[in-house]
Fold each of these.
Amino acid sequence: MSIDLPILKAPPLSVEANVNLTTRTLQLRLAGVINEQVHFRTLFDYVFGLTDDVRQLIFDVKGIQDINSSGLRSWMLFLKKVQEAAFQLTFAQVSEPFLERANIYPDMLGPVGTPVEKFEAPYRCPRCDIRSLHLLDTKAFESGTRATPPPFRCESCHTDLLFDELESEYFRFLRRLPKTSS
């Protein structure tokens, strides 16, 4: 059984939940801005109320457009409480702004070993000067090797796109992911 629920629809953040009682998972899709106006108390109360039925939280934060220092603090407190309640965490999709913050504050993505499945990566066309985001799968990056962004072509002029960040900094979070066995 799977149930979709809007949990929070208050600007600047909206949260939708999908509860799957068969797999005992709760997927939370967050969209908007996490700032000083966002308090995760309602969300935590909702999540904590499911502790008998749900053991795994799957976060989809691809819709997060910005997170400021006050929002970061609220998120970190929420994540700490969720971890104390012994939920297993996974990040299904991570937006570029969320990942940029997580590379500075790694615990935003949970403890070391928390899986991240996909993340947005920025590219730029040297000819059109158009910036685009591409969703990358972490499975494409071997653990322990230097992360190299996959190639993409501009949809307008078909020129090879350039990765639009410092690779060594942008892919830093990959070191925290679970080690894959060869």
Amino acid sequence: MTSSSNISLLRITRPDAQGFAEIKLLYQRAFVAEERREPNDLDILLEHADFSFYLINHYSWPAGFLAVWQFPDFLFIEHMAISEQFRNRKIGAAALEQLSAMCKLPLVLESEQPTNDDSASRLSFYQRQGFQIIDPNYLQPPYRPDNEPLPMLLMSNQPFDEQETSMIAAAIKAKAYPSFD
């Protein structure tokens, strides 16, 4: 467990771990079907050595989660969500700061294109945390065979050149997303 002030990150490694049920509920509420896995797939993710859920606690209350893939040169945050009742308290900012301090690697994540107030607010949040767009034309691979790739922004808290960004995107697609070939 990592903590600073009133925020802590608890790594979840087993489906029966305390806090995992809360993560699954928030995951379902926070993301539309096209942007998330099937609920049963979350248990299977924990079998991957390079994948972790982190429960974000505010004092002792579950406030959100991070879904993180470990790569040799960066961490990929596949999902991040804060429960509605805990938003606008800088909990997400503190969680990203703690994750960055813990891993000492660049953080990479996907953000929606700013097409409405909510997606524009999320993009602004990440930018305030020091993230910059490294690929404005990134396509998130589909989670289901009948879905299309989703236009997203690939962002990082460290700069990458075009070649590095291309390699990062390819690595994410190969490791973190299902293949339907």
